[in-house]
Amino acid sequence: MKNIISLFIGLSLTTAVNLHAQAEEYEPEDLIEYRQEVMGAIKGHNKAVKAILEGKVPYDGHLDMHMASLEALLGRAGELFPEGSDFGETNAKDAVWDNPDKFKQSVEKAQNAFASFQSVLAKGDNSASLDAYKKFGKASCGDCHKSFKKKDD
Ligand code: HEC
Questions:
Q1: Which of 36, 85, 96, 125 registers the highest number of CB atoms within 10 A of its CB?
Q2: Dihedral sign, Cα of residue 65, residue 71, residue 76, residue 77
């Protein structure tokens, strides 16, 4: 029991130290660039799913891979916006850090929208899947970008 408790204390200390390090030791521009690269990866998988569903490419066998990647990436989206990464060449609005609860809700909404899309896709009806794809785009990428991302210059 004692060991478990010290393990817990150890873990929470490690987390606190990590979060601290994130704010102080990493360059904002590196954090921002990383975030944008990961968003770019999300876009890539998202567009690949669309091309497959529209029947433009013969890669039905890749669908699972792109969906698994999207799920994993969206699952981590909230981690891409640490304190201190709001300063520099970013298109993220201040609202991400000024209104963290709303931002968190937006991340969760995107994850839920993904889950709904995934369950329609699993039924294998192509036109229903395309509709669900569009809904997912609006309720995840679209919804969050509207509130939290500046338009590209
Ligand atoms: C919870 C909020 C949120 C969700 C969900 C989200 N994004 Fe983003 N996205 C952002 C923010 C904020 C930025 C601006 C990041 C920056 O410039 O630092 C961004 C930036 C981007 C960029 C630009 C990256 C670059 O190179 O500058 C692309 C592309 C992108 N998102 C695609 C998507 C796609 C596609 C989806 C949906 C599958 C999605 N995003 C879902 C918040 C979100």
A1: 85
A2: positive
For 74-97, write each residue's pLDDT tens digit: 999 999 999 999 999 999 999 999
Q: Is 43 in the pocket of ligand 1 (CB under 6 A)?
A: yes
CB-CB contact of 101 with 48 (8 Å): no
The answer to whether the CB of 22 falls within 8 A of the CB of 84 is yes
Rounded CA separation 134/66 (Å): 16
Kindly state if the Cβ of 85 falls inside 6 Å of ligand 1. no
Residue 20 CA, ligand 1 centroid: distance in Å? 25
Contacting residues for 42 by C-beta, under 8 A, at least 6 apart: 70, 73, 74, 77, 141
